[in-house]
Write a structure and sequence with these properties.
The complex is a heterodimer of chains A (252) and B (442). Chain A has 252 residues and is of the alpha/beta class. Chain A has one domain: Rossmann fold (3-Layer(aba) Sandwich). In chain A, 40% of the residues lie in helices and 28% in strands. Chain A is built from ten helices and twelve strands. A six-stranded mixed β-sheet of chain A has the order 6-9-10-3-11-12, with helices on both faces. In chain A, strands 2-1-4-5 form a four-stranded antiparallel β-sheet, with helices on one face. In chain A, strand 9, helix 7 and strand 10 form a beta-alpha-beta unit. Chain A starts with a strand and ends in a 6-residue tail after the last helix. With 442 residues, chain B is of the alpha/beta class. Chain B has a domain of 282 residues. Helices cover 22% and strands 38% of the residues of chain B. Chain B has nine helices and 21 strands. In chain B, strands 1, 4, 5, 7, 8, 10, 12, 14, 16, 18 and 20 form an eleven-stranded mixed β-sheet that branches. In chain B, strands 3-2-6-9-11-13-15-17-19-21 form a ten-stranded mixed β-sheet, with helices on one face. Chain B is globular. The chains are: A alpha/beta (252), B alpha/beta (442). Chains A and B meet through helix 2, strand 6, strand 7, helix 3 and strand 8 of A and helix 7 and helix 8 of B. Bound molecules: adenosine-5'-triphosphate and magnesium ion. The site of adenosine-5'-triphosphate (ATP) has 14 residues of chain A, from strand 2 and helix 1.
């Protein structure tokens, strides 16, 4: 589904990603861990299509398309979804109206009927229940004045509504209390199926108790220095990043 | 020089038409005015002769060069022929109104549809009222709008027609009163100078819409003066909608005078016009008054919009809220100057001012200047200005959810603009304004 080949990315002349290789297939969950500033969000943003990054080398192939040539909205319509590390507040745009517009754009692209207000409301209500989003958040402007946890929950709510094929979750667990963590994880798990894939970026092994990954990758200074199964996260938690950086030569 | 030429043109046209203007039917032979009204007119023309139209050397006109207006010799046009169908598109859907139609500044009895809801209410043409009840006009006319600039003097000198609204004490008018100003296609370079007078009695309530539209793409000049007297505990809402064609010029002076406990709420929506200038002033002349001034402008091409406001806190315990927003594209330019005076007497004043603009192009420009002059010590005053680009992060966020770039831009601009209308309770009016904005953004 997604193939990242030898990807080099710079921001303002500063090299951040230094040769990323990653392959994600349908049905898989990949976790990416790594120290602050190692380039995890950069990778997520490049997948989603944010401006301001120089791709100096490499490519990303998504479902046979050259992803880097597509606009962010095209990527979204083709099923790429990014849950933001820092969801953006949009004053004046109601959450519900925003989501209806987004969903209908995506449905149009897929050749499906657009949902009218009544149909959308019904559909949305189901999803709201699933991730425990109260009515009060739905009619407020997108993310405006939401607490940190509410913002993250809202990202997963959008994931559920839009039903993408590739979901990239950038630290969706940070700022969540224990209960919210469970709810959000359930939201992700109920989304998972054999036709889609998830990349979770996280600092905490804890999340991976709920969202069990098939692969764990360790990103350090713009490179994936180690990959393994779900056990790798536990090992990291125990031994810290020093352990992988010192063993960098062992993996590739 | 164009400038002198223009002034002379209007001075000589004054000489030529003064006898045909209202209120001056019989000038005496020794050159003295026959009526007190004409005295005011003559003082105004003398004042105009002396001060002329403002130039950018005048501090209050520093950013607005009106020279393009002086390239034309504008002429009043009376007796325009327009059908109800021609103005249909300027009406507000689903809104019950009393309609006063001014064609090129002249009252049209044929097109106006006035409903006098209760006893004593007057919704009249200025010209007519001056004829039948000159004392009413004289009691207020030119008492509030000082002749400090050439345009006000110009309007006052030529004051001939417009709308007069009078609401007696303890009277609430349910329907909005729509003063619909239309520049007709009769001629090029039409000059329209409505003179409006609004008098709201004690405990009265009115909502007034002042719409400005043009039928053709011809160049025109509208130079309008509003004087508004708001009685004790009265509430006046005024919605000004400037939507004339992009070749037109529009100069406006709105002067309100507020009595104890009154509320003046003003929405100014500027969309159409090559040069638009609004001077919106209110004097909070007694305790517990509230003034709400809201403005929104959307400009493109080389449109120029200048909003000057003056809130004069003369007495204690009053509050003012001011929010102006602009969305500027292409080479267009916006000016905001918000003066707030807090006089020595005006303790416990609350004055809030904010002005925000989004620049959609690198060439668009906004000059903004808050001007707070505070002479009382126990007051709360704040002001803020935020001029910037569309929020790139928000744009990206919307796009990552499948919303196309253009659509996402429109969503953000609408959200920015429409919040000005949030406080409008009347749904039909609210929707109408939203749709006007939407239509302009398309
Ligand atoms: N727009 C930018 N301009 C300059 N530097 C940037 C920019 N974006 C990212 N960087 C830098 O790139 C590096 C990687 O940042 P990134 O946000 O990808 O890290 P991260 O792995 O997600 O970190 P964290 O765990 O703290 O979220 C950091 O040093 C950051 O300062
Ligand atoms: Mg990050």
């Amino acid at each position: 589904m997604l193939k990242i080949k030898d990807l080099f990315v710079s921001v303002e002349e500063k090299e951040i990603l230094k040769g990323i290789n990653l392959e994600v297939n349908t049905g898989e969950v990949h976790a990416i861990m790594g120290p602050n500033g190692s380039g995890k969000s950069t990778l997520a943003n490049v997948i989603a299509g944010r401006d301001g990054y120089d791709i100096t080398k490499g490519e990303i192939i998504y479902e046979g398309h050259n992803l880097l040539e597509m606009d962010p909205e095209e990527r979204a319509r083709e099923g790429v979804f990014l849950a933001f590390q820092y969801p953006v507040e949009i004053p004046g745009v109601s959450n519900a109206v925003f989501l209806k517009t987004a969903l209908n754009e995506i449905r149009k692209h897929r050749g499906e009927e657009e949902l009218d207000a009544v149909q959308f409301l019904k559909y949305m209500k189901e999803k709201m229940k699933l991730v425990g989003i109260p009515d009060s958040l739905i009619n407020r402007p997108v993310n405006q004045g939401f607490s940190g946890g509410e913002k993250k929950r809202n990202e997963i709510f959008q994931l559920q509504v839009l039903q993408p094929r590739l979901a990239v979750l950038d630290e969706t667990d940070s700022g969540l209390d224990i209960d919210a963590l469970k709810i959000v994880s359930n939201g992700v798990n109920s989304f998972r199926d054999k036709n889609n894939a998830v990349i979770v970026v996280t600092h905490y092994q804890r999340l991976l108790n709920y969202i069990i990954p098939d692969f764990v990758h360790v990103l350090v200074d713009g490179r994936i220095v180690k990959s393994g199964g779900k056990g790798l996260a536990l090992e990291l938690e125990e031994k810290g990043y020093d352990w992988v950086t010192n063993n960098e030569a062992v993996t590739a | 020089m164009e400038k002198t030429k223009s002034k002379d043109w209007y001075l000589s046209s004054f000489k030529a038409i003064q006898e045909s203007l209202n209120g001056s039917a019989s000038l005496t032979t020794n050159g003295k005015s026959a009526t007190p009204f004409h005295d005011i007119r003559k003082q105004a023309i003398a004042r105009f002769e002396k001060i002329d139209f403002p130039t950018t050397k005048n501090e209050d006109w520093k950013y607005t060069n009106i020279a393009p207006i002086l390239n034309y010799n504008f002429t009043p046009v009376a007796g325009a022929e327009v059908s109800a169908a021609d103005i249909e598109k300027f009406l507000i859907p689903n809104l019950k109104t009393s309609l006063i139609v001014l064609l090129n500044g002249n009252f049209s009895p044929k097109l106006s549809k006035i409903h006098l809801e209760s006893n004593g209410v007057r919704i009249e043409s200025f010209r007519n009222l001056l004829r039948i009840e000159p004392d009413f006009i004289l009691e207020h006319f030119a008492k509030y709008a000082q002749l400090e600039n050439g345009f006000v003097a110009f309007n006052t000198a030529f004051a001939d027609d417009g709308a007069v609204i009078y609401v007696p004490d303890n009277t609430i008018i349910d329907n909005c009163i729509h003063i619909l100003n239309v520049i007709t296609a009769e001629a090029e370079n039409i000059l329209s100078q409505p003179r409006n007078l609004i008098v709201a009695g004690r405990n009265s309530k009115i909502k007034i819409i002042e719409g400005y539209h043009s039928i053709s793409e011809n160049v025109s000049l509208t130079n309008v003066v509003n004087e508004i007297i708001i009685g004790e505990s009265a509430e006046v809402e005024l919605y000004r909608i400037q939507n004339e064609n992009l070749n037109s010029f529009h100069i406006n002076r709105t002067q309100a005078e507020q009595k104890k406990g009154s509320v003046f709420t003003h929405y100014s929506v500027s969309l159409g016009g090559r040069i638009m200038r609004n001077d919106t002033n209110t004097v909070l002349d007694d305790e517990n008054c509230t003034a709400n001034l809201y403005g929104l402008y959307l400009t493109e091409d080389s449109q120029h919009i200048d909003n000057h406001t003056l809130i004069d806190h003369a007495k204690p315990h009053c509050q003012s809220n001011e929010l102006y927003k602009g969305v500027l594209n292409d080479n267009s330019r916006g000016v905001f100057n918000g003066k707030v005076f807090v006089r020595k007497d005006a303790q416990k004043t609350n004055a809030y001012q904010s002005n925000k603009a989004i620049l959609l192009s690198n060439e668009a420009l906004v000059d903004t200047k808050p001007q707070l002059e505070i002479y009382a010590d126990d007051v709360k005053c704040s002001h803020g200005a935020a001029i910037g680009q569309l929020d790139e992060d928000a744009l990206f966020y919307l796009r990552t959810r499948g919303i196309g770039k253009e659509e996402a831009r429109t969503v953000l601009i609408r959200a920015f603009a429409n919040d000005i209308f949030e406080t409008i309770e009347n749904e039909a009016l609210h929707d109408y304004l939203n749709n006007l904005v939407f239509a302009k953004l398309k």
